[in-house]
Specification:
Distance between the termini: 95 Å
Helix content: 55-70%
Strand content: under 5%
Strand order of the largest sheet: 2-3-1-4
Number of domains: 2
Number of helices: 26
Largest sheet: 4 strands, mixed
Radius of gyration: 26 Å
Length: 537
């Protein structure tokens, strides 16, 4: 048996190294200029990473990574800390420094996903097809070249799942490490930890015991302990939540009782008087309808396969969805072939459960539906299913069909790469993210000139200026601590002001450059036409 396994392991190792190197090259090409921007989130984590290197705290001086709490309710706990290695390698190039860790994770993720599918099929063709499809997937490829908090969370969770699938005995507890790191990344993935671990543990017990979960239960004590550790992690976080800054976002959950009560009251007011109102218009019924609506919306075919949401995905290629249209056909093929597989119930349980549980981040959030981040696990689940379909077709060993499929898939991938490398760098400059980079570059070229900036978003712009121009040092941190604590953003000769623009305030300051955000309007008192129109007629 050992003589059979060793060649297989060597083959997988060689394939993994080749796939990793291909990913590393592909995802590093033009990384200094594509994407041409840092978004708000990326700039925030860049300043956090630089500040931790310089002082061990964030830019305000009031937060430390070991607190396992977010410094800002909009962001995660450990993502900034995770990006520190990039700044140690490239301290003077923020664009590259912020992409080091995502590129590494993005190069490893196809291998991790390939190992998951290989565990269920035990054939190299499924490992290869999964790794290659994950390499070329639009969602994975783009997030491998950006430094958001959702992608590390997904990588660590799937790495933990691989640990559960492959590690034996007490070694399975090593999976606690990636699950712990993943839990303190993207806020929206915290509710997914226990369901994903439970799903994987149950499938491991099922796979190894022929569906009889009661058999040899003692053998899986380490797995149950791992599940208990994950439950404890979520429980401790829930206890701490009321005392964390992120508690301000509790009202965003769809199960918010106050919001439900208001919805029920409104619905009752716009209904004719009838004996069924109390039965159909109540909090439980309203909650079920809302959760059902959001669950169904998580599978919006237009967003998944055609185009992204142009209003919020301004940082990405929106001409493509998260998956290729050909992936949809592969998924349908898997559905048609699933009953023919010996372990079809196990496959349905694991991969179907992965997709369904992946919707929780969307279903539980009472906001505009945003699949880009919250639907990440569902997207990866579809990638895995499409990869299985690709492998099943290649297993038919029909040369014409296989070549036609590979050719069609190559056309989709080529079209996406064309959009990404030749159109996206230009189209991405139309948004205010690029505007902030231009402002930061102008300031860097005027080091001795006083500059006053009027903007609607002083903190966001200040984060960008600090990140792009590498202004966070041990010498500047005392002044930055005061600026962030007092919310009066400025450093040395740079001052940012929020609100309308009054040119008379700076007209007397000779030598001062005044920059006005294109979204900022003149103050009514400084605009004769506005003042005249404000007078009563």
């Amino acid at each position: 048996m050992r003589s059979i396994l060793v060649p297989k392991l060597k083959t997988l190792l060689v394939l993994s190294i080749l796939i990793f190197l291909c990913n590393l090259v592909l995802k590093s090409v033009f990384i200094a200029s594509i994407p041409p921007i840092l978004t708000n989130d990326e700039a925030y984590y860049a300043t956090e990473a630089q500040a931790i290197i310089a002082s061990g705290s964030d830019v305000s001086g009031t937060w430390h990574p070991w607190q396992l709490a977010p410094a800002n309710p909009l962001y995660s706990e450990l993502t900034g800390t995770l990006y520190i290695p990039g700044f140690l390698l490239f301290p003077h190039h923020t664009q590259i420094a912020m992409k080091v860790v995502p590129i590494l994770f993005g190069s490893l993720l196809p291998i991790v996903l390939g190992l998951i599918v290989y565990k269920f099929f035990k054939r190299k063709v499924f490992f290869v097809t999964t790794a290659l499809i994950a390499t070329c997937n639009p969602w994975i490829f783009q997030f491998s070249r950006m430094s958001f908090d959702s992608f590390p969370g997904i990588f660590f969770y799937f790495l933990g799942i691989v640990g559960i699938l492959y590690l034996k005995g007490w070694k399975v507890l090593l999976a606690c490490i990636p699950f712990f790191l993943g839990f303190y990344q993207y806020q929206g993935y915290k509710p997914l930890l226990v369901p994903l671990v439970l799903l994987t543990v149950v499938c491991v017990m099922w796979k190894e015991n022929g569906g009889d979960l009661r058999r040899s239960l003692m053998k899986y004590v380490p797995h149950l302990m791992l599940l208990g550790v994950c439950c404890a992690l979520v429980g401790i976080y829930s206890i701490r939540l009321p005392h964390l800054l992120s508690s301000s976002r509790i009202g965003e959950f769809a199960i918010n009782t106050a919001a439900l009560g208001q919805t029920v009251t409104t619905n009752r007011r716009v209904s004719f008087a009838n004996p069924f109102t109390l039965f159909f218009e109540n909090k439980p019924f309203t909650l079920i309808n809302e959760l059902k609506r959001r669950f169904v919306a998580s599978f919006d075919l237009a967003w998944l396969f055609e185009h992204r949401n142009d209003t919020v995905d301004t940082f990405a290629v929106t001409a493509f969805g998260f998956l290729y249209e050909i992936d949809f056909l592969l998924i349908l093929y898997v559905i048609s072939q699933l009953p023919l597989q010996k372990n079809w119930r196990l496959l349905l349980c694991f991969f179907g459960g992965l997709i369904v549980f992946g919707t929780l981040a969307n279903v539980l959030k009472d906001e505009q539906l945003w699949l880009t981040f919250r639907g990440g696990f569902t997207i990866i689940g579809f990638v895995l299913v499409a990869s299985i379909g690709f492998g099943l077709i290649l297993q038919l060993k029909k040369k014409f069909v296989s070549l036609a499929l590979i050719g069609c898939y190559a056309l989709f991938v080529g079209s996406f790469f064309y959009q990404y490398f030749f159109r996206y760098p230009l189209l991405a400059t139309k948004d205010f993210f690029f505007y902030n980079r231009v402002v930061a570059n102008y300031i860097e070229r005027q080091p001795n000139r006083p500059i006053v900036i009027f903007t609607q978003t002083p903190k966001i712009l200040f984060d960008d200026i600090l990140a792009y121009n590498h202004l966070i040092t041990q010498q500047t941190l005392p002044a930055l601590h005061i600026a962030y604590q007092q919310q009066k953003f400025g450093l040395n000769m740079i001052q940012l002001q929020e609100g309308c623009f009054d040119p008379r305030l700076v007209a007397t300051e000779s030598g001062t450059t005044v920059l006005v955000d294109y979204r900022v309007s003149p103050c009514p008192s400084s605009n004769p036409l506005a003042t005249a129109s404000a007078k009563p007629v």
